[in-house]
From TrEMBL:
This is Response regulatory domain-containing protein. InterPro entries: Bact_response_regulator, CheY-like_superfamily, LytTR_DNA-bd_dom, Sig_transdc_resp-reg_receiver. It comes from Sphingobacterium athyrii. The modification 4-aspartylphosphate is found at D80. The keyword Phosphoprotein applies.
C-alpha cells in the first residue's frame, strides 16, 4: 500500500513540475579588456543560472559590431569602467540603446568616483563579482521604475559605416569592385562594412580616391579603421554640424578631442603634426576657442 502511495505521489510531483512555468533567463553582454576578468564575471553569471550570455567581448567596438549585426537588445550590459579603446562615458553613449540596463564593473572600490557616470548607469559591481552582490543588483533593477528619456538626456554617438581594411594587407585601400590598385598576394577585396563611432576617429585623410579614417590608441599609435570612396565635400556635409571636427586643408579633417598641442602652423594629434592651410587657420582658431583647447599652445 505504501509503495502505491509513493508511486502516485511521485507521479503527482512530476505532473506539477511539468506544468510549473520555467523562468526565462536575462540576456546579457559582458565587456572587459582583461580576458581573465571577462571569464571570471561570466562564470559567476552562469553559476547563478539567471543569465543568458549573448556575447563576451574584450573591446567596446567589438560589442558595437555585434549589436549592429544582430539588431537585438539585451537586458544588461556589464562593462569594465576603464577600457583602452574608450572611456566609460563613451561606452554608455555608444551602447546604451542596446540594453535595458547598463552596469559598470570595476576593480576599484565602490567609492570609485562616478560623478560623471552615475546619472547614466543603473548599477556598479566590484571585481571580482560576487554572487550576493549580483543578486542584489538584479532585485534592484527589477524593482526600478524605468527612467524617462528626458531624464537620461543622453544622445547615442553618431556612427559611420566604413569599408573594412585587412590590417595584414600591404594595400591599405578597400575596393568593392574591380581589381586591386597594386598587385600583392595579401591584397583582398572587401565586401563588408563595419560601423565606427565618430568619437573613435582621431583624423581622416584623403589619399587618392579614398578617405582613410584613423583611430589613436593610448600608446600614441594610429590604427586604420577603414576607408570610403567618397569626396571630402561629402565629409563636409556629414561633419559640419559636429563641433569636434574641423577641416585642416583640402585633404584632412581632425577630431579636436585628440589634439595634444597647438602650434602656430597647425596642431599635434597624438604624435603626428598636422598643418593648417592659411584659408582655414581662422576657422581652426575659432573652433579651438569653442572647444577650450587653445590653452594647449
Amino acid at each position: 500500500m505504501s509503495a502505491v502511495i509513493i508511486y502516485f505521489t511521485a507521479i503527482t510531483i512530476f505532473v506539477i513540475n511539468q506544468h510549473k512555468p520555467i523562468m526565462s533567463k536575462f540576456p546579457v553582454v559582458i565587456i572587459d579588456d582583461l580576458y581573465g576578468a571577462l571569464e571570471d564575471t561570466a562564470a559567476v553569471l552562469e553559476e547563478l543560472g539567471l543569465f543568458q550570455i549573448k556575447g563576451k567581448f574584450t573591446s567596446v567596438r567589438d560589442a558595437e559590431v555585434y549589436f549592429f549585426k544582430k539588431d537585438e537588445k539585451v537586458y544588461i550590459i556589464f562593462c569594465d569602467i576603464e577600457m583602452p579603446d574608450c572611456s566609460g562615458l563613451d561606452a554608455i553613449k555608444r551602447l546604451r540603446n542596446y540594453c535595458s540596463h547598463f552596469v559598470f564593473v570595476t576593480g576599484f572600490a565602490k567609492e570609485y568616483a562616478l560623478d560623471g557616470h552615475k546619472v547614466h548607469v543603473d548599477g556598479l559591481l566590484s571585481k571580482p563579482v560576487e554572487a550576493d552582490e549580483l543578486l542584489d543588483l538584479v532585485k534592484h533593477l527589477k524593482s526600478k521604475v524605468p527612467t524617462s528619456s528626458t531624464d537620461r538626456d543622453l544622445k547615442p554617438e553618431p556612427t559611420i559605416f566604413l569599408d573594412f581594411v585587412d590590417p595584414k594587407s600591404e594595400l591599405h585601400l578597400a575596393r568593392k569592385n574591380g581589381p586591386p590598385m597594386r598587385k600583392h598576394p595579401e591584397n583582398k577585396r572587401v565586401y563588408e562594412k563595419v560601423p565606427v563611432a565618430l568619437a573613435e576617429i582621431a583624423y581622416l585623410k584623403k589619399i587618392g580616391n579614398y578617405i582613410h579614417f584613423y583611430a589613436l590608441r593610448p600608446n600614441d599609435q594610429f590604427v586604420l579603421l577603414g576607408v570610403l570612396n567618397k569626396r571630402m565635400m561629402d565629409m563636409d556635409d556629414l561633419l559640419q554640424q559636429d563641433p569636434r571636427f574641423v577641416r585642416m586643408d583640402q585633404s584632412v579633417f581632425i577630431n579636436l578631442n585628440y589634439v595634444k598641442k597647438v602650434g602656430l602652423e597647425g596642431v599635434s594629434v597624438g604624435s603626428k603634426f598636422l598643418s593648417v592651410s592659411k584659408s582655414r587657420a581662422d576657422e581652426l582658431k575659432r573652433r579651438l576657442m569653442l572647444m577650450d583647447i587653445s590653452h594647449k599652445l
